[in-house]
Amino acid sequence: MKQVFNILILIGMHTNAFSQSWVDSTLYPFENKFLRLEAGTMHYVDEGSGEIILFVHGTPTWSFLYRDFIQELSQDYRCIAIDHLGFGLSEKPDSVPGTPEWHAQNLSEFIQKLDLQNITLVVHDFGGPIGLAAGIANSERIKKVVLFNTWLWATAHKEEAQKIDKTINSGLGKFLYLNLNFSPKVLLKKGFADKSNLSKDVHQHYIKPFPNKTSRIPLLNLAKALVGSSEWYQKQWEQFDSLANKEFLILWGRKDEFITLENLQKWQERLPKTKTVELDCGHFVQEEKTNEAIKEIQSFMKE
């Protein structure tokens, strides 16, 4: 019965994904796949064959962020891109923690259930602490790491983070996130150095996964975790040695107003031999400097 129940869930999830008329198959031309985890059903893309590249998104994005990377790199590699639970086409379970540590546990379970090995881990934004924590827990499965703008250390002492945290935990912050869908509508656009790089069609693909207040709770939960999970970030940072001996590539948008060059410097101090490519763009390098970033990853994979 349990197996039949799981099959019915997966059929339902497939139907749900294909019924999303807002997903433009010319922009996102991938087969939708689903994996049942303890916390819910995760949507993912699995294209191509060969060495594995695992793409991990942050907020308020989903695997759509890596669509051009998947199309290009899947010609030579097996490209897997997940949607965190509560994001994209994944299930949006009710009453879950929604913290980065919770998402990291889900990703770790995903890696183990698919028995992924020799992974090149690609992370960005909140996907950094989420993906790197899962990488630390499965360090023997990780071969290389690509870092887009992200962090992995305590945030509570940062003045800017404290200001954001105060707003997010206020009544106004909750209203903006849940009633106005503020994160994908406003903050995402603010993350672009050149707003013309965000077309209306592409922007809609980041807005429409969150059609109502309930669906936006995962966005609010991660925003609260910027400072709320500070101690957990620091704990991962202190355990980072298990990954630090891997090969790294840093691709950094130097005009990022959210995760600034100060964060890049911290990575460079920790990984002094790592190649860094600074790109003239904002937070969403994948959207603003797509071709440049893909070429750097191609070179990195061939080294």
Automatic annotation (TrEMBL):
Domain annotation AB hydrolase-1: ranges: 52-289
Superkingdom of the source species: Bacteria
InterPro entries cross-referenced by the UniProt entry: AB_hydrolase_1, AB_hydrolase_fold, AB_hydrolase_sf
GO molecular function, one term: hydrolase activity
UniProt keyword list: Hydrolase
Gene Ontology cellular-component terms listed: membrane
Protein name: Alpha/beta fold hydrolase
